[in-house]
Write a structure and sequence with these properties.
With 322 residues, the chain is α/β, with parallel strands linked by helices. The chain has eleven helices and twelve strands. The chain has a seven-stranded parallel sheet, with helices on both faces. A three-stranded mixed sheet has the order 7-9-11. Strands 8-12 form a two-stranded parallel ribbon. The N and C termini lie far apart (38 Å). The structure holds nicotinamide-adenine-dinucleotide.
Length: 322
């Protein structure tokens, strides 16, 4: 079994690769792994340090059709986690988001089609649905993205599903909530707040902090991706829901407690433009395939705080722009 992980040097992609190579996913068989990554600011070979030398690394872009025609053949499974992912960056400038998340996805899917890849999983987000005040989305909810990031992810999802329907490409789409865990680039809220608090600084809380997010440990997300790779159906989407629905204010309180800090360290900042109020996924379809999350939020957040506390060598250079 050979697996190609596009975006495998990023936060979730590297967790997936570390888990694959540790034999803790699916059947436990350790596959041959190729990581294809452009190494943008968010891609970091150090994320793969713990499994160093046990995978093949290709430095490249999922928009590069010629490169893909050489790299994709010979893989039994292609998982696409390569993306531009930070909403705030997409508000500042959206070109790279459309390029990688839509055109890059299309280029990778086309390469899989030409190579006859037997299984493809395209990883996406709950943000493609927009915002929901109450209840939860099922997989057939209409896509109604608000940020340029979410719109570019929705575009990629639709291209993936079209490749399944039009060409019969054996691709499934996964959509997940907000991830947290080790090796997350310290611009996203959990590592941003932890690293700033560890340095004795303040943390910025958007607006009143009422926005609600559903949190999942990155390893549970990877378990869901693997289950879909093994048991998902062509042309279907699957939700990987979180284990803790929290307002940003509640999350901030838990992080302050975890780091022994108080509310004097919180700075209220102007709300994000077009800020979605709430995301919520129903994961009935994935649970019917046998999925259950394994990491409770309390345990996962505690171990995440401990990880950043003990790995300043990983995040220090990123925070300092080195
Ligand atoms: P990340 O930003 O940490 O990593 C993205 C990786 O993709 C990086 O290694 C980067 O170098 C690489 N990359 C970017 N553009 C590329 C290109 N053109 N060609 C090749 N590689 C490229 O992101 P993440 O948080 O690990 O997210 C991975 C996927 O999961 C994304 O599709 C994202 O939309 C999705 N997702 C993330 C979350 C979350 O909370 N982080 C939640 C749901 C879904």
């Amino acid at each position: 079994m050979n697996v190609l992980v596009a975006g495998g040097a990023g936060f979730i992609g590297s967790s997936y690769v570390r888990m694959l190579l540790s034999g803790v996913l699916g059947t436990g068989e350790i596959p041959g792994v190729t990581v294809l990554d452009k190494l943008t600011y968010a891609g970091n070979p150090a994320n793969l340090g713990p499994v160093g030398g046990r995978y093949t690394f290709v430095h490249g872009d999922i928009c590069d059709a010629e490169l893909l025609s050489r790299v994709v053949p010979g893989h039994d499974l292609v998982v696409n986690l390569a993306a531009e992912t930070h909403v705030d960056r997409s508000i500042e400038s959206s070109g790279e988001f459309v390029r990688t998340n839509v055109l890059g996805t299309r280029t990778l899917l086309q390469a899989c089609l030409e190579a006859g890849t037997p299984r493809v999983v395209h990883v996406s987000t709950d943000e493609v649905y927009g915002s929901i005040d109450r209840g939860s989305w099922s997989e057939d909810a209409p896509l109604s993205p608000n940020s340029p990031y979410a719109a570019s992810k929705a575009g990629g999802d639709l291209v993936a599903l079209a490749y399944a329907r039009t060409h019969g490409l054996p691709v499934s789409v996964t959509r997940c909530g907000n991830n947290y865990g080790p090796y997350q680039y310290p611009e996203k809220v959990v590592p941003l707040f932890i690293t700033r608090l560890l340095r004795g600084r303040t943390v910025p809380l958007y607006g009143r902090g009422d926005n609600v997010r559903d949190w999942i440990h990155v390893e549970d997300h990877c378990r869901g991706i693997q289950l879909v790779a093994e048991r998902g159906e062509t042309g279907e989407s699957y939700h990987i829901a979180g284990t803790a629905e929290l307002t940003n204010r509640e999350l901030t309180g838990l992080l302050l407690d975890g780091l022994g800090a108080d509310w004097s360290r919180v700075e209220r900042v102007a709300d994000r433009k077009g800020h979605d109020f709430r995301y919520s996924l129903s994961d009935k379809k994935l649970r019917a395939l046998g999925y259950t999350p394994e990491v409770s939020f309390t345990q996962g957040l505690g171990s995440t705080v401990d990880w950043y506390r003990s790995h300043p060598d990983w995040w220090g250079p990123l925070v300092d722009g080195r």
